Batch of 2 targets.
Target 1
Amino acid sequence: MDNESKNNVSEQELELINKYSRKELGADDVYTFSVVLCDNDVDRDNEHFSDSALDTLAKMFIGVTGIYDHDPSAKNQVARIYDCKTEFVDGKTTVYGTPYKRVTAKAYIPVCKSSEELIAMLDSGIKKEVSVGCGIAKCTCSICGEDMRIGACSHRKGKHYDGRFCCGVLDEPTDAYEWSFTAVPAQRRAGVVKSFTDEATFKRLCTDLESSGESEIADYIKSLRAKADEGERYRSVLRLETVKAGITAKIGIESALLESMVKGLSVDELLKLKGCFEKTADKRFPARMQTACEKDNSSRDIEAAKMKQYTI
Ligand SMILES: [Zn+2]
């Protein structure tokens, strides 16, 4: 994304800008910048816009104002889109292998006292992360083409079917009603935050890093990811053991409720709770009673809990 100097605004651009301004603005009165509003790649919800939806959105976003939402007190600082188009990026493809296409907008901010700080920030080469709000009439399944909003097929977004990735294809935009942008430091790669939410984008991030000569960083991220997975598996096992300890201690809470109660607990909290349950069980039941209780219905509950955990 480029930041253009306020002095580089062409006559043609000024003409477009002045369509939206009450008073005639000159090159020194406006600061312009470019933003990528959306693209045809898969997002964190495992959905993506169709190419034709992007073409429609590019037309719809012209004239729409955006809010700078980094600081709530700066809500009056708005930028307006005066030009918007779709474009392909040479050599770049989406995670599902088609040419990458995006909606790029040009926006302006009137230069005045209250916008000074924001303009200085945009001018310093920072990137802009943008979120957009729009209405969409259709979301179809990428595998079979059925309407996913009404659950017309059994495919699930984010899963693979015979090697094909299933996602929702967003089509027929009805309205483009807002966009907001947050300024982030240039060195932070756009999309890093959301890339960890699904496997495909995580892999793409690693590939991007490797192809730009950052394979050490890619390896480091992969090792962190592996450690995080291990930690998560340990937490899963600990959750089951805590539920089992609670049932054994006969604390009077049924296993399903116990299961949902321990879901959000950290490893430390689980260890403490499990310890409490074990102490309670020790106090309440002598060793031979514990053997007896293993034979009752609660042992079936434990098995059920285990299966549920591992199928998630
Ligand atoms: Zn389907």
Target 2
Amino acid sequence: MMPAEGHADILIRGGEVVDGTGAPPRRADVAVAQGRVAAVGDLSNWRGDEVIEADGLVVAPGFIDMHTHSDISLLVNGRAESKLRQGVTTEVIGMCGWSPAPAPESRREAMIREVGAWAKDLEWTWGGFGDYLAALKRAGTSVNVAPVVGHGTVRAAVMGEEGRAPTAAELAAMRREVELALEAGAFGLSTGLVYAPGMWAETEEIIALAEPVGRQGGIYFSHIRSESDRLMEAIEEAIRIGRETGASVQIAHLKAEGQRNWGKTEQALARIEAARAEGVEVSYDCYPYPAWNTGLGQMLPAWAREGGAERMVERLLEERLLDKETRDRIIAFMRQAAAEGPGRWERRLISSAQSETGRAAQGRTIAQIAEQQGRDPEQVVIGLLIAERGRVGMVGFGMCEEDVKRVVSHPVGMIGSDAAARAPYGVLGEEHPHPRAYGTFARVLGRRAPCPWMRRCTR
Ligand SMILES: [Zn+2]
């Protein structure tokens, strides 16, 4: 029973409460005391130190951002401004196979390089997953955090960024790392199966590592092996991993990339529903935009990315000086991909770079840069990767509006920005991030102007 009278630290009066349970909205007052919701209902006899008149407004619990990359940015600036200001109060971190731990001494330098400019003001004090969480706690964050351990990070910690299967001993060591992370508080394991080194893992390796996750009732989060031509096969693999390990499965940023795959989300959602009916708990996260965001290195063939970013850059450099043939193969690969997807370079925009010259490219498409420099787009890609030591962010306009709407509005889907917490000042404000970093949750709730990049599903 709710007390008829009471005292709240914050009293929110007369708003329309949407409580997150799926119940219909209702007009109610909300009392907050000692950081918790103390009462909801008719609280006209309550008093509050602070009273917020919410007449005509919606009152809701903070949103959970189900897929973020705030692992490092929360240490740089724990206020998480870009998230709080869209109503997010909980972030799930450690996505797409990357987490800041385990970070053994031998890997530390490479990981700091991966982090790039954000590592500038950062004191990397941790090794194990528990140490990282302790550092996060010490730093203090305005949002709650649900951490996940990255498979790519675990793999690199044990066997480097090598493009091969692990030995039995290496697999056992990786499993031990996953167990340690779970003991320290990880909610599950994430994979990034298009990125080095995650892409070198066979399904069996992932099953072996997701087993302890399933045993503890955790979640297997996956940036699956394909979001385009082989989307359905990639979903099938994720479902199999869930079925065989008992872990819940969350497919990352569900989408259908590339014009020839538009409309495939219908099939994808049907398969997810069927798997759920079969008893495999599969869900997904998504963001409400027709463009994705990833590293520019993803334009290169898989073999050129083996060994990680540094190795990739060395290879581009070597190739430039010593082995023109290999470099030509990389260029041919990109040309062929561009031929299969006409207009590709007009739809690839640089979002982040580290150097002064790289930063000048931010906010421009590869096609624009190529035209301005009088070079081929492929040369621009290689030039940028070399100059930036592989750390270039790219936005790609690859999805169509109907697919985006379909995944965002389906009841199984959860909203995940796929973005790190940022702020418009300091080191977190120096890039041109994908608008999802600031706009995801507002855009789900309502959208005024059509996106200038919007493309209909006309195949
Ligand atoms: Zn991802």
